Fold:
Amino acid sequence: MGAKTGLDDSRTTGRVPRRAGRTADGDRPDARRVRRTAPPAPATGTARQPIRRARSRVVLSALVMTFAAGLVATLALPSYAFDPTRTGNADVVSGRSVTRSGEQQYEANEHIAAATLQRDTFKATSSATLLRRAYATQFSSYSGPSAADFLKNPAHPAFSLDGVVGTGMQYIGVPYVFGGADPSGFDCSGFVMFVYAQFGVSLPHSVHAQDGIGTHISPDDARPGDVVVFNDDSHDGFYVGNGMILHAPYPGARVRVQKLWTTDVHFVRFGI
Structure:
């Protein structure tokens, strides 16, 4: 009676018998192990939104990378003046044959004539040549008075050494001519004779003769307009000061002023 009563009490009170609380092995179940192996709670609508955003970002990044790669590839492609994939005969443009093999090649057409190259040539005339031509034109056809004519009718009746120098300077550029005694050509003594004749002073056409009739003066007394005579009577001319001489030098040269190149000279004065 007492044991039966104890069973009835456990059913009525809701208590679990100790035998029912054990596992099949006879051990009690571990509460911590039960919690860890418990199935996760079902996902809610709030937890699904971050997953969708992540997927959208991945898709957008893939699209951007694809577009960038295509843009770079487009810029890297070569430019073609024509479609290289087309086939057919070559196009002829302005006499040039253009092939369609991926590069441009030029071939001269038979209608195109080869250019003829020729070096440009020119001739320049020096200023000295132009000056000689001007002098030649001025004096070559001289038809004025001779030294003898000037002695009869002097161009400068009033004699002065400065006048002699000024008159002699007018004939710079006249060519040297052996035996010449007028502006078409002078030799040294003919030049001196012609200039002095314009002042009414008669001189022979000879260096030696002129040296013989003139008055010898010292170099310190020499003035422009006096005559410089080489000591061997080989040459003479007008002294123009500062060691310079105005003269008709030699064949091939012209009347000019230059520095005396020797001291083996003496000075002669005429007209005074």
In short: Confidence is low (pLDDT under 50) at residues 1-14. The two ends are 198 Å apart (CA to CA). Helices lie at 2-13, 31-36, 45-76, 127-139, 147-152, 161-169, 188-197, 207-213. The first strand starts at residue 91 and ends at 93.
